[in-house]
């Protein structure tokens, strides 16, 4: 069964790699670099204001590390047909699931290494220990994550929800003890306590698993849920066949559509506006990006970072909306409309301009609230308006011309 998991894993990785080139595009990397740079700058400024032996530092780090340990679920790669075709192989599924645990361990450990490293300055300020103690902390977090995955494997068996909750409570309590010992007593005490926890979990859960059968329905459903979350994330960047866009009536938005005169000059504008408001593909993307940018801008106090983030998100929203131009290309009837082809470009330009202005107004409100200096906030507002006008006047026609080439 280990080889069988390897075959499925190779197929899964091949599929994910196909999507990753769309996710990690230049724009996403640019946003990540900008956001991480801004957060790093803000974090460093906050650390400078903290007193020595900051009393709340250790509890904050403890909670932060516990949250980090929740990252990553066991990837069983189980499929619907397994309930029938793999069922006779259940006695060998332990090997299969152990391989799944090993595969599922590496991505969380990378996240723990990066995020745990980011929390080290706060640990140093709070405890007075050296940065070299990070080695003990990362070993402890890695062991705790391994036992967390081991617990997730046990939850795939036919056990009651009460027992699942009980074992998770035991894991959580022992993890708090291990992290607490490492932060309050001695860094080396954390890995030792985590090691004891991992050994006990391994021995006890192995014995309990031998007495029960796998819950195939639950295992398949958990894997479906896990993959659905991954596809939802990828869907932010590209179309995913596994995620279908929904269409809803949304009658309450009819007043907005009624503002568009029903004349032949507005044929495509009406179609694009209706598609945006009733579909979830572009409206969902627009709402998500506006919310993300709004939350970031609300907490930013630095003028240049606010300026950069708001300008960058306006560009990203506009860039992601332009493909709506091809929304009706597959409909034969639209090609019979007695309207000039140039009307499509004008309609997309108008729609993108209106939506970017709405986003710019919302961003301006957040900036005006967050920035302490009104003049600096006003400069950001002016920059956003200028950007929207330039984007609609020059960049949208350029991109549409390139799409037709």
Name the features:
single chain; 405 residues; mainly alpha; 15 helices; 73% helix; flat
Question: Could you please describe the fold and organization of this structure?
Answer:
73% of the residues lie in helices and 0% in strands. It is mainly alpha-helical and 405 residues long. α2 (26-49) runs antiparallel to α13, α5 packs antiparallel against α6 and α11 crosses α14 (342-370). The radius of gyration is 26 Å and the shape is flat.
SSE blueprint and pairings:
Blueprint: H1 2-23, H2 26-49, H3 57-68, H4 82-85, H5 93-127, H6 134-154, H7 161-184, H8 189-209, H9 216-234, H10 254-258, H11 267-278, H12 281-299, H13 303-321, H14 342-370, H15 374-404
Largest sheet: none
- Cα(first) to Cα(last) distance is 51 Å
Tally of DSSP helical segments: 15
What percentage of residues falls in helices of 4 or more residues? over 70%
**Proportion of beta-strand residues:** under 5%
pLDDT averaged over residues:
86
> Could you name the ranges where pLDDT drops below 50 across 5 or more consecutive residues?
none
Task: Count all strands and give the number.
Answer: 0
SSE string, helices as H and strands as E: HHHHHHHHHHHHHHH
User: Any idea what the radius of gyration is?
Assistant: 26 Å
Query: What's the shape?
Result: flat
What is the quaternary state of this protein? Answer: single chain
Secondary structural class = mainly alpha
Q: Can you summarize this structure?
A:
The protein is mostly helical. It has helices spanning 2-23, 26-49, 57-68, 82-85, 93-127, 134-154, 161-184, 189-209, 216-234, 254-258, 267-278, 281-299, 303-321, 342-370, 374-404.
């Amino acid at each position: 069964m280990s080889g069988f998991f390897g075959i499925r894993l190779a197929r899964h990785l091949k599929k994910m790699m196909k999507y990753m080139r769309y996710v990690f595009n230049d724009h996403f990397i640019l946003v990540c670099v900008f956001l991480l740079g801004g957060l790093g700058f803000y974090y460093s400024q906050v650390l400078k204001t903290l007193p020595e032996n900051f009393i709340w530092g250790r509890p904050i780090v403890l909670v932060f590390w516990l949250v980090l340990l929740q990252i990553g679920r066991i990837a069983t790669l189980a499929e619907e047909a397994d309930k029938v075709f793999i069922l006779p192989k259940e006695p060998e599924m332990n090997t299969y699931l152990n391989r799944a645990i090993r595969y599922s361990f590496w991505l969380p450990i990378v996240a723990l290494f990066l995020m745990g490293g980011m929390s080290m300055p706060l640990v140093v300020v709070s405890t007075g220990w050296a940065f070299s103690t990070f080695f003990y902390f990362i070993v402890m977090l890695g062991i705790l994550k391994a036992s967390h995955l081991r617990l997730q494997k046990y939850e795939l068996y036919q056990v009651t929800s009460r027992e699942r909750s009980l074992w998770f409570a035991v894991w959580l309590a022992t993890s708090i003890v291990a992290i607490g010992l490492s932060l309050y007593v001695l860094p080396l005490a954390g890995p030792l306590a985590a090691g004891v926890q991992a050994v006990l979990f391994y021995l006890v859960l192995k014995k309990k698993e031998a007495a029960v059968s796998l819950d195939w329905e639950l295992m398949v459903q958990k894997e479906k849920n896990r993959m659905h979350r991954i596809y939802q994330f990828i869907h932010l960047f590209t179309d995913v066949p596994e995620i279908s866009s929904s269409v809803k009536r949304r009658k309450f938005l009819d007043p907005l559509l009624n503002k568009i005169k029903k004349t032949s000059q507005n044929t495509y504008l009406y179609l694009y506006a209706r598609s945006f408001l009733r579909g979830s593909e572009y409206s969902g993307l627009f709402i998500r990006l506006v919310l993300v940018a709004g939350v970031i801008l609300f907490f930013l106090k630095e003028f240049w970072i606010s300026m950069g983030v708001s300008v960058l998100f306006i560009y990203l929203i506009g860039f992601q909306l332009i493909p709506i131009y091809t929304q009706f290309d597959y409909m034969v009837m639209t090609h019979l409309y007695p309207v000039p082809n140039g009307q499509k470009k004008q309609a997309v330009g108008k729609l993108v301009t209106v939506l970017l202005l709405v986003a710019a107004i919302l961003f301006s409100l957040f900036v005006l609230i967050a920035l302490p200096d009104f003049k600096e906030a006003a400069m950001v507002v002016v920059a956003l308006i200028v950007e929207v006008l330039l984007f609609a006047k020059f960049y949208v026609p350029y991109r549409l011309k390139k799409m037709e080439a």
